[in-house]
Every structure is written in C-alpha cells, then in structure tokens.
Amino acid sequence: MSGFIAIWPIRQDPITRHRAPIHHEATTTTSSTTTAASTPEVLPVPVFDTLVLTASKILHKEANCVRIDDCNDNSRVVVVGDVHGQLHDVIFLLQDAGFPSEDRFFVFNGDYVDRGAWGLETFLLLLAWKVFLPQRVYLLRGNHESKYCTSVYGFEKEVLAKYGDKGKHVYRKCLGCFEGLPLASIIAGHVYTAHGGLFRSVSITPLKRSKGKKNRRITLNSETKPLCLGSLEELSKARRSVLDPPWEGLNLIPGDVLWSDPTMKSGLSPNTERAFGLLWGPDCTEDFLKKFQLKLIIRSHEGPDAREKRPGLGGMDVGYTIDHVVPSGKLITLFSAPDYPQFQATEDRFNNKGAYIVLKPPYFDVPEFHTFEAITPRPVVNAYYDYEDVLDSDEELDLASMVTAT
Ligand SMILES: [Mn+2]
C-alpha cells in the first residue's frame, strides 16, 4: 500500500491538542470512525496541474522582495516560519490565527516541504490560499524549496510514492513552482522577512574606465573586496528562478537570502557550517535596519536541532528567539514546526513548541508572539528519507552532487 496513506482523515471530532509530551511514532491510530483517502484521490492530477499552473503564473510575476503596503487600521499580518510538511500543525496554525481574509495577511517564510511526511499536502494547501487571495497570502522561498534539498530530505520520494507513475510529473511541476517563489518581503515599510536573512553586495564595478566597450573589464566585489552587505536594489535585481541557488559566480544573493544565519560575532563571514550563505553579526543587522529605515527583521531557517549547535544564540523551545537587539530595532528567528523533526533517530525529542507572529497597526513593527504545541497523535506513517543517516541539520552540503543534479 505504498503511497496510500491516511493523510486526509475525515474526522468525527475536531482535531484536538494534547498537552502531554508525545513520541513521534504515535502508537494510537485515528479512531475507527475515521475514514481516509490518498492525496491523488482528493487532488487528482488535472486538479493539481491547474492549481500549480495558476499559482506559478501569480508567483513568477511577483517581485523578489514583495512589498505589503496595503495594510490599514483593521489589518493584521501573520508571519509564519518553517513548517516542514507538518500538515496538521499548519492546519491548527491557520485555525488559531484565523484564515487569510481581506483584513488578515499571511507571510510564510518558506521551508514548506522535506522531513515531515506531508510536504506535498502542506504546499498545495498554501498554494490554494495563494490562488484564492493572491494579495493577502505571500509564500516566500525557503532553502528546502530546491532540487537539491528535496532530493535528500524526502520531498521527491514523497511525491513519487504518493502519485505513482504520475509522480515525476508532479515533482517536476512543484520544482517549477518553487522557482517562482519570491525571496523576501517588506511589511508596511517597517519589517523585512526572509527565510535565511541578509545577503552580500554583488555589485559589479569597472576596474578602469575605458571609452570603448571592447576593453571594459569587470571585477566582482565579492571576490576582490571584503564581504559587504547588499542593498534592497541589488536584491530586486537578483535572478531567483533557479532550481538550486548557485554558490559561486554572479548570482549569489538568492543563496544568501535562503541559507544565511545570524551570529553574535560582528561582521559578515562565509557560513562554513552550511557551506552556503553568510553569517552576519549585530552590526550588520543595525546597518541594514538603519539604511532601509526598518524596525524589525523576521527570519526562520533554524529549528531546535540547528540551535543546539549554536552557542551564544537562544534555543528554539518556544518557537522563536530574539537574536539581535540594536539601536534601530530587532532581529527575530521564527520557527513554526512544533515537535520537530517528525522523524528522529533517537528517543530524545526536542519537544519544541512552534510559534507565529502577529503584526498590528499602526506601524506593524511590534511582534506579538503566539506559541503553540504539536497536534497529536500524528497519523502513523513512514519517513520518505533515511533520517537515521541523513544529517540532523542542513550542514555540510555535498556541493559536488548539486552540480551533477541539475
Ligand atoms: Mn531552512
């Protein structure tokens, strides 16, 4: 029965929250009154095709950094961090925060898929909301919305298992859609959000001015000068439509935005732990906020497993951390997958809570944190990746395999 999994339970009772710590392989199954259907039964391929095509057209037209300026005195903006295929927690979050509406905007910071067993359903649910309210729901790209990550952390196998002989087609269409996802948002002119965070300058400067075009030589800032922070104008010009963001060459901004992490050490430096993106210090947070007259940065990308290895930064027990407090504002990390990861080799779980942020008028720059617990029991399913062998976090990328996997 591979591929036929009780993902869409039709329950007699509403989904409930259990407060007791839970084991990831829940021993209780859904009740006998529950019936279930496979995803292709609920979303046949022609429905999937239309949804993804419609969403892709909308997404590809959006700017790299979407500006959400249409907020007024009645508006609320809900910001969501990594969800990683934990469908039931996403449904709870939507119910708890209230569904998207004329007055309720949503900005998702990416990492919809991988690790959790319901990445496809999670992504399609959010795509449906995007199509229904394109000016109210914004889906940003995470580093896991890429060919490389989805081939290692489960999403590709999940899609192939669920859609059988149509799986390759469905996976390809999802990758095409991932390419269209914007990279960042600016909410009400005051709040910058992105999956990883800040990014380098890649501006090209002529070595010497020459009259003729023939002899004009160019050199890259990033290769010849110390790393310096990129501007919003540079972000707007980046080419984001790539299956995997490149880690060398001219187009480095998408990789930085999706992979970078904050640190307590000043300055910008290569993110050697991840082999991708940058580490930036509180001074960079201050420079960025001040230069672009912002008050807040909300980024995601680090769950409890990643934070365990990051001395000097807070744990992810309650779904968020305040990482930098500087004169111009704050930097926050937001993670929305409770009891993460769904599959774990050891008995010890992080038992982390998830969180989302609500931003309110007049300035939308004071975060209101909403912490929540995992929905339990999760339906019993098998993982789509070898979680005992695959690394706990996104460290030590095999860059060579990314080259061959284009
Ligand atoms: Mn991430």
From TrEMBL:
Keyword line: Hydrolase, Manganese, Metal-binding
The protein's required cofactors: Mn(2+)
Keyword Glycoprotein (UniProt): no
Domain Serine/threonine specific protein phosphatases: 140-145
Alphabetical list of InterPro entries matching this protein: Calcineurin-like_PHP, Metallo-depent_PP-like, PPP_phosphatase, Ser/Thr-sp_prot-phosphatase
SMART domains: PP2Ac
Catalytic activity: O-phospho-L-threonyl-[protein] + H2O = L-threonyl-[protein] + phosphate
Family label: Belongs to the PPP phosphatase family.
UniProt protein name: Serine/threonine-protein phosphatase
Organism: Populus alba (White poplar)
